[in-house]
Amino acid sequence: MTKLSFALCLTVGLATWASQSLAYDAPKASTPPVIDGDASDAAWSNAPWQAIDQLTLGEQPAAEDFSGRFKIVWTPSKLYLLGEIVDDILIDTHADPLEAYWEDDTFEIFLDEDHSGGDHLDNYNAFAYHIALDNQAIDRNTSGKPRYLNDHVTSVWKRQAGDDNKIIWEASFDIYPDTFSDTNNKATPVTLESGKKMGFMVAYCDSDSSQGREHFIGSYDIPALDGDKNRGYIDASVFETLVLVD
Ligand SMILES: [Ca+2]
Ligand SMILES: [Ca+2]
Ligand SMILES: [Ca+2]
Ligand SMILES: [Ca+2]
């Protein structure tokens, strides 16, 4: 192989990798899915599955311990997430929704409305919605304290008959811009349109005991910084790209 052909192969390979791993094309839903933990909505049939299979923290789980995949669709007013999760034990050890919320089973979606990237730990440049088993959504406020964001998120999950370890988890999101603040909870969600790009990731915190989170598995292989891949809750620059398509 010549140097040129090797370089071309490398370039094509990297481009293929980037196109496969960095963007999710979410189709528009003509009829929005009903958020009820039942995946039979017609809207989901048009959306591709993406795996939640990238180990971010902890040990790699066996498939029956945790495995998952998701779909996303949209309408002008909301973004919709379908999760198909296998988890052998569902547990909510910390009764207080604001206490150590990442140590209980938690479905997590990261959203950066304007695809800006950058720090979002204690600001609303991006959101890390931690959706707990009680369907409440939590993220850190501008004082670094956990707060409810339940008026942004509607969530319902159900176990599936005949498949005890599988749950269908549906959620819808109002998409808030970075002008949202702790004192302006009435900030207006944006209207979504075809072609819009946002930063996003989907992840699951798997806890199976009172010992807390055992596995943190995401949809994207975050580049490690000093050996640490658990950067999504801090830095929106490590997110994937979500593209809204017709
Ligand atoms: Ca449904
Ligand atoms: Ca598990
Ligand atoms: Ca942003
Ligand atoms: Ca679990």
From TrEMBL:
This is Carbohydrate binding protein with CBM9 domain. GO terms for biological process: carbohydrate catabolic process. Keywords: Signal. It comes from Arenicella xantha. GO terms for molecular function: carbohydrate binding; hydrolase activity, hydrolyzing O-glycosyl compounds. Residues 35-245 form the Carbohydrate-binding domain. Residues 1-23 form the signal peptide. It holds the Pfam family CBM9_1.
